[in-house]
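Researcher: Please predict.
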Amino acid sequence: MKVVVTGTRGIPGVMGGVETHCEELCPRLAALGADITLVRRSAYVKDALAQWRGVRLKDIPSPKKKALEAVIHTFRAINYAASAKADIVHINSIGPALLAPYAKLRGLKVVFTHHGPDYDREKWGRTAKAVLRLGERLGVRYADELIVISDVIRTIVRDRYGRTQGVHLIPNGVPPPDICDFPEYFGRLGIEKGKYVLGMGRFVPEKRLHDLVAAFRGLDGYRLVLAGDSDFEDDYSVSLKEEARAAGVVLTGFIKGRELHALLSHAALYVLPSSHEGLPIALLEAMSYSRKVLVSDIPANLEIGLPEECCFPCGDVGALRSAMEALLASPSVPEYDMDRYDWDTIAAEVLAIYESI
């Protein structure tokens, strides 16, 4: 069974939720016996790997432009899959799903993973939002099998498009925590274990990290650490960095591996203030490290089932500040049930879908 995966910038070590999803899932599928090739966007690739953890890697160029790169790259990836005589093309995200009918015309079976309604992201204009909605419609209609990562998305698929057959709810996962110390790194950042609040993600408007910076000003005894960066430097990312530096926030840039594991191991609190999510992997990671977490009250976050005190009204900076103070003052240690988010189980479920078609 030969599967080509597209709709992601690439793996390994590329920033983004879909990228993390594929980085965890694809090697496990390969270990289970699937012949997996992941097509990478060459503009994001900083290595010359042809294979990684059993996954074949195919680098195909595309313009590094927000409105064009996903669709053009997916078109080229589908052509590659057809020429390579793949059995299945696995498309990730609604933008690339615009090409699902084309994949069918090329004789490929299509599995489509819907990672979230990206047309709700604040970075897109009216035309881009319309194209993304069309991509969602075509992906839902033409995919042989459809994977949704949350019940919120399953409801969209059912109520908006009437599809209930061949729809599989399979959430994002999280690997076992790698709890570690990294005193040299903490020294470079100027932070202490248990004395910082952590935010993670791309520096884009819908992550609302500006709310976290505003709410954190003057909070005694703790530092704020923002781990992440922007793919495309724009007015928002520049202003966020300027506001953060002025407020004394620690900016790490995009990090993976031991640096990220150490920050997750010793954060006093993880905060996710975003207005848009599919099923946030960064939140699952923080939970896997048994960190206190605080999230905005959007449906994708509420679906995880956190206690009421771990949620605040999205965009309400005052409520965010109050909730942070309360959680930081609380002596309780959280316990989460992470069984549903096991990547090995998830990989077995996805493989069963491949085998069914």
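Model: The radius of gyration is 20 Å.
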